[in-house]
Amino acid sequence: MLFPIKINSLKYYKNFSKNEFFSEENSYNYIIPFLLKKIKILNFFKTSSQHRHLQTQNYIINNLNLKDKIILDCGVSDASSSIYLINKKLNILKHYYLTDNFINIKFKISKKSILLFYNNEPILYFNKYLLIFIADIKNFFLKSIIKYKINYNFDNYKKFYDYVFWYKIEKKFSNNKNITFLKYDIFTPWKHNNVDIIIIGNVLNKSYFSDKKIIESLKNLNKNLNNNGYLIIIDNIGKSDQENSSIFKKYGNYYSHCVDIKNGTRIKKLIYKTFKIYPKNFIS
User: Fold this and answer.
1) Is the predicted pLDDT of residue 281 greater than 70, yes or no?
2) Which CATH architecture describes the domain 50-103+166-278?
3) Which of 77-81, 143-147, 151-155, 241-245 has the lowest mean pLDDT?
């Protein structure tokens, strides 16, 4: 996929000369955070922004008892979508786990462009004129030509830099023992403390996984959710990025469907298929 993009749409561009914009510092602070709003890694979008889950987080803050509770937040990308809840309630929580299966990329910079890599494969090229999603190009020959041309342009730039998606927020909370950042795959066993609240934002959707895989993940996560704990699934839908979510409370082998934000998650039927569910408000 190739399309033009104005580099001066990047915040703070006017503060830098064109010759120094593609620097190491600017790549970490401005360019890659900007590109993360557009990037896909192995078909997973890494879009994240503050207040993206605001309605759900306000429900959590206003209606759930969070004192001494443990939260497992899955698929957080750069963790900016989680920062509102963290800032409001981290002081009373026992622990907050921020997790994602894809936590970093590598990149090279030249004087006029940047090249992003995942698993040693170039996935995105960006200069002041265009952005190329190399990973999205289906035609093998076109992809090979573009990769060759781009790699040729970077032959004189040997150094790889590492970018951890949540490094800004991790740095902010580096001295706080109540928060942990972890690489975690929701299809694998959780090796830490059982948790009281599981939040899954924009991960369990049918554009990423089959129904079978979604059910597998739900069953896996259920093993680590304490009784009377909450399972919270969030979807942001369409160009407007409308927030929809569903909140379930665990009672032994059952769940109660507590509330839907807007239309609720698009995988509600799969949740009902996976667990025994009491209807909304059946249990107070």
Assistant:
1) no
2) 3-Layer(aba) Sandwich (3.40)
3) 151-155
With CA atoms as reference, report the closest residue to 250 among 184, 192, 187, 198. 198
DSSP secondary structure, 205-228, as one string: -TTTS-HHHHHHHHHHHHTTEEEE
d(CA 128, CA 5): 7
Could you report the per-residue pLDDT of 102-132, keeping only the tens digit for each?
888 899 998 888 888 888 888 888 887 788 8
More confident residue, 227 or 152: 227
Residue by residue, DSSP assigns 232-248 as EEEEEETTTTEEEEEEE
50 — pLDDT class (breaks 50, 70, 90): confident
Helices (H), ranges, the chain: 24-26, 32-36, 54-63, 83-89, 140-153, 167-172, 211-222, 268-274
Q: What distance in Å separates the CA atoms of residue 71 and residue 234, rounded to the nearest whole number? A: 15
Domain ranges of the chain: 2-36+104-163, 50-103+166-278
Determine contact, residues 151/17, Cβ cutoff 8 Å.
Answer: no
Nearest-angstrom CA–CA distance, 258 and 132: 44
